[in-house]
Amino acid sequence: QVQLVESGGGLVQAGDSLRLSCAASGRTFSTNAMGWFRQAPGKEREFVAAIWWGGRSTYYADSVKGRFTISRDNAKNTVYLQMVSLKPEDTAVYYCAATAPVYSGTYYDARLYVYWGQGTQVTVSS
Question: What does the pLDDT read at residue 105?
Answer without folding.
Answer: 83
